[in-house]
Prior knowledge:
Elements: E1 7-10, H1 16-27, E2 31-36, H2 39-51, E3 56-60, H3 66-80, E4 85-88, H4 103-131, E5 136-140, H5 143-147, H6 153-173, E6 179-185, H7 199-207, H8 213-218, H9 225-234, E7 246-250, E8 253-256, H10 274-285
Helix pairs in contact: 1-9, 3-4, 4-6
Amino acid sequence: MSLSGKVAIVTGSGRGLGLAYARELARQGAAVVVNDVDADVASEAVRTIEADGGRAVAVVAPVGSTEVARQLVAAAVDAFGRLDILVTNAGILRDKSLLKMTDEDFDLVINVHLRGTFTCVREAFGYFKENGIPGRIITIGSPTGQRGNFGQTNYAAAKAGIVGMVRTWALEMKKAGVTVNSVIPVAATAMTKTVPYFQKAVEADERGDAMPSFFRHELGFGTADDVSGLVAFLASDDAAGITGQAIGAGGDRLQVWTHPEAATTEYREGGWGYQDLVENFGTLFGDKLQGVGEEFLPLPEDLQPEPAQVR
């Protein structure tokens, strides 16, 4: 087991993707600190990991504050004697279009995803640096943070911010030998369950059947277990040279996302005034402008969602 003797924290790991990450880390030999806001859910996650033959303890607390970040690191050290791996998975959704989104909707999502990642990573990195541990930090991003998505101003801002922090932290943590990366999962979750486009894929997953190839291969959409292997790999010594990356995983597909780069560049002696832009922008840049949002392939006829039942 490649992570034997290692200790990991996985935030938001009571169920779903987070639980899949925690179980895979445990299968690879790591002891795991499970985190959830629901005590029953957290306890059940611990029992599941122990039933698999792993070791785990639970911290029941909402991620976001410095106090909870300290509590998580302390739990790892108290229960297992050290900390080697942090996976920041905790998150919530408050989806609404811009004019309907309240301050509270925005702040709650930013606090858990963005601030929670910041406080937990800061606390873990401080422990790694103080104890000379070449730790592994895996944050969880989203395609929404890379390309945007209707109704997810708060979530897009948080997920884009996480990747921006990762690129900065990779520079700051390099000397300490700590790696930090962001995983971009595309998998069946509570969120995708509500999207008609993915209905047939999610139903297959819930039945325990293999997802149709169209979803797994063409869309790179799969199960939580399709992502957990990447998380465990990035937590291992084999990934010591990988840092500052945004890596997508889903179904049969693995992707390394580019960092933002200029799509095209033009120069004009003396700079670009208003009239210069009026006269030249369309010709020079019109066909180079970037798209937004995810564009999905048309569903094959046999994978079309079922029409809503009339009651």
